[in-house]
Amino acid sequence: MDGRAASHTITDKLPHLRRAGIEVVVLSGVSGTHDPLVEHHQLWPMGPAGFRFELRHVLRRRLGSGIRYRLAMLLASIFLLPWMLIEKFLRPVESSWSWWLSAYLKGRQLARQKPFDLIYSTGGAFAAHLAARSLKQATGTPWLAEVHDPMVVPGEVPVTRRQKMQAEVEHLICTHADIAIWFTEQALASARQRHPQLAERGKMMLPGIDKPFAVLPPYQPGQKFVIGHFGSLSPTRHLGPIVAALELLSVRRPDLVEATELHVYGGPLDRISSDLLVGSRVHQCTRQFGRIEADPITGLSGREQILHRMRSVDVLLLLHGEDVICSEYFPSKLYEYLWMQRPILAVVHRNPQMAALIRGQGHAVVLSDEDGTGSSAVSSALAAALEQLFDRWRTKGLEDNGQSSPFTTEAAVAQLIAWSEQCSPAR
Question: What domains are defined for the chain?
């Protein structure tokens, strides 16, 4: 799916796996486009809530968002409502949970037709790992699980049905997967602490992305000092830190704020960001671009357009968030930012590995404290960093750093292949 980090994590690996002589058969949902280069089976969830969720994406892609789409979804929702209410009562977890059964049945059918050397589940949605666990039980095939985001909130005991379900899936992965991969050191350490049986079968891998341009589009500074934020916003990852910093600067450096534009990409503003901007003195320097969709005229996907826009800004702003989960994840946009060769200004919350990685590539990091990114100390540090970048931009410009990112999909695939050979030595 264009613009979805979880989709890119696997899609970007496929060319490298093929070049390594590995035949890949993909089982996925129906929301994305069909891959013409690999054997790709797109499967509907069996539950009504999951079916409705996927139907929204499929119909919007085919019908647009006009009256035909709304009428079709109304009729489908009326038909599915009684079954959705029953499902919610019996299984009050994420809507895609029932996809595991579709994937399991299709996987069993395929396994009867040809032998597989490895089951590789990647997500995202925990349904993929449930399907993989069941297929391993049924076929005896080794299983490699790749966990994108931590399934258990650090320091919290699962209480809701969904939290308990995710904790159970983590337990299945740590107990039965031949190799289990997390994307940060702390996420792996926490999983090992909860499940000592994981031991050395647990691995840490930085997924990265490959070089997005054969030749980098030229950076052209403009009349405004442009700060670009790319990625979704939420009540725990909002524009509060940058708004507070710009408000501080509007008092002592009105010339800076007057010359600055904050460009926001990736969807609608969250409630906190919207409320802050309504009464803010820096509202007029914020421009919202929302989610960028595929352009039928140029043929560029939304992702490709975003990469070009990343190259055009003066500074890339990375907001980590202020949730406890931040200690165990990196925003996926980080890897794209590192290829842009533009200065990065990051607010990092309780994640030493992420802060060290960004600083190691020559970029600026502001560490948020235990109270979150809205504290005065963080705002002051962010304002000071912006002031330095602005003065460099105004006097001698902010040139590209000329540094290529070492965090690539190709390197991640090399790790995957090495680990898969450990659990499937016959291959």
Answer: 5-42+91-209+411-423 (3.40.50.2000), 225-395 (3.40.50.2000)
